[in-house]
Design a protein that fits this description.
The protein is an alpha+beta fold. Helix content is about 35%, strand content about 15%. The protein starts with a strand and ends in a 26-residue tail after the last strand.
Length: about 475
């Protein structure tokens, strides 16, 4: 419990925070599902980052629009900073694109236009937002990407994660020349560290539109330097060149949104939306909802069933594991794997709320080689002590021909035994006959050639749930 919020399962792990699905409880039996964004503790020691996260909460709390996921509360709980958001049953646009591509299909053009149209409506609301005193905030999202657009089961797309948004009256002062965002969706002026305005978000929205229409990454690159070069120099192909069945009338709209000279670009999200809707009529929300249901409906139903089991006490909170959706994100090159849902302590991330940075997600702690070496040394020491004790006891008993060895000592003696004449472990076939239930092994001359099979302890191999 974090205050009156009970964590149920983990939705995503990002570069700066972990996102959970939680249950908010209150008086008179009040309860509802919310999303909690919990900053990684080590980052809170950085005062600049702490202020940036508070800025996200402040900016997002001022945005009230159907195409923006709202922030409902901000908590400081036992030294932690928590952002509470409305829970939207959804998947990210990146997951939608990847899932459709894996089925050897394309997102229908009207649905792609609807997703971008909803995004533009959310951007227009952010760009025009004012504070409670009527002062224009001049918000620039600066991280518009398929990972930060969630497509709901209601068919409505919403913009999330204003973690690196910049407002004119911000609590933190972003230094000139700093780069924040995903390189594949940055505007050219953003890669040069110039002062940004709303037109930077429109360029990113143009990249999203191009990728939703074609199903192919526009500025795919091996590294950041290559991405910056492509953004600033490489010609942008028309969507109809990549996918010939697309209407050519979309090409001028996409090309204008992707103008490298921002003065020749669309000057507002509303202008971009008008040009787009004049060419293609967006699909109604019910068609978008049908596509989401066909792509991720089973996964969302499994999550819903798990949450219901938690609320009814049939499943412990935080014991539900979801498939790793990073494989469905076009910003990462991880290979597709078999999808499975397990009940256990290990919780895999899901990109319904994606990370702010296009960096690898936080990896779980893995035992290092030094720990295995230390463990092996301790095991050897214990085994040697057991062997010495057994030999001492054999000498102390007159006429005794039995040596009492523990399991660890037996394993060590097996490892040191020489191979037989044929190259196999000596006496392997007689091992069962030589061992008693008490662990007694004959120490006579014949027993030296009749040892149990060689057993070398092997450490348990932990797989990496993130696939990297």
């Amino acid at each position: 419990m974090l205050g009156n919020y009970e964590l149920l399962l983990r939705l995503a792990v990002g570069g700066m925070a972990t996102v959970y699905l939680a249950r908010q409880v209150g008086a008179a039996g009040f309860e509802r599902l919310v999303v909690i964004k919990r900053v990684h503790p080590h980052l809170l020691q950085n005062g600049q980052f702490y202020d940036m996260f508070r800025e996200e909460a402040r900016v997002a709390s001022l945005l009230h629009h159907p195409n923006v996921v709202p922030v409902t509360n901000v908590l400081e709980f036992e030294g932690e900073l928590l952002l509470v958001q409305e829970y939207v049953e959804s998947c990210s646009a990146s997951v939608l694109v990847k899932t459709v591509s894996q089925a050897a299909k394309r997102i229908p053009v009207p649905i792609a236009v609807r997703i971008v149209a909803d995004t533009l409506l959310g951007l227009q609301a952010a760009h025009d937002a004012v504070d409670m005193r009527g002062h224009h905030l001049a918000i620039v999202h600066r991280d518009v990407s398929p990972q930060n657009i969630v497509v709901g089961t209601d068919g409505v797309s919403r913009l999330i994660d204003f973690g690196i948004a910049k407002a004119r009256h911000s609590l933190t002062d972003t230094r000139e020349g700093s780069l924040k965002g995903k390189f594949g969706y940055m505007s050219p002026e953003q890669t040069r560290g110039l002062q940004l305005d709303r037109r930077a978000d429109l360029f990113a929205a143009g990249v999203v539109l191009h990728e939703l229409l074609t199903g192919v990454r526009l500025f795919r690159a091996e590294n950041e330097f290559d991405a910056i070069r492509r953004l600033n120099e490489e010609p942008v192909p028309n969507p109809s060149q990549v996918r010939p069945e697309l209407p050519a009338s979309l090409d001028p709209v996409v090309q204008k949104a992707l103008e490298r000279d921002r003065d020749r670009r669309f000057q507002s999200a509303a202008e971009f939306l008008d040009a787009l809707e004049c060419v293609i009529s967006p699909a109604p929300p019910r068609e978008v909802a049908a596509l989401v249901s066909s792509c991720v409906g089973d996964r969302l139903n499994q999550r819903k069933a798990a949450v219901q089991a938690m609320l009814e006490g049939r499943l412990e909170p935080m014991h539900f594991s979801e498939p790793d959706e990073r494989m469905s994100s076009p910003s990462h090159g991880s290979a597709a794997r078999r999808i499975s849902v397990t009940m256990g302590d290990a919780v895999l991330p899901e990109t319904q709320i994606s990370s702010t940075h296009d960096a690898p997600m936080a990896q779980p702690a893995r035992p290092g080689r030094a720990w295995w070496i230390a463990g092996a040394a301790a095991f050897s020491a214990l085994a040697l002590a057991a062997v010495g004790f057994g030999l001492w006891r054999a000498d102390a008993v007159d006429g005794s021909s039995e040596v009492f060895l523990g399991p660890a000592a037996s394993a060590l003696s097996l490892a040191a035994s020489p191979p037989g004449p044929d190259g196999s472990d000596a006496g392997a076939s007689d091992a069962a006959a030589q061992e008693s239930e008490a662990g007694v092994i004959d120490a006579g001359a014949d027993a030296r050639s009749a040892r149990p099979p060689r057993v070398v302890p092997r450490p348990e191999l932990h797989s990496n749930p993130y696939g990297e």
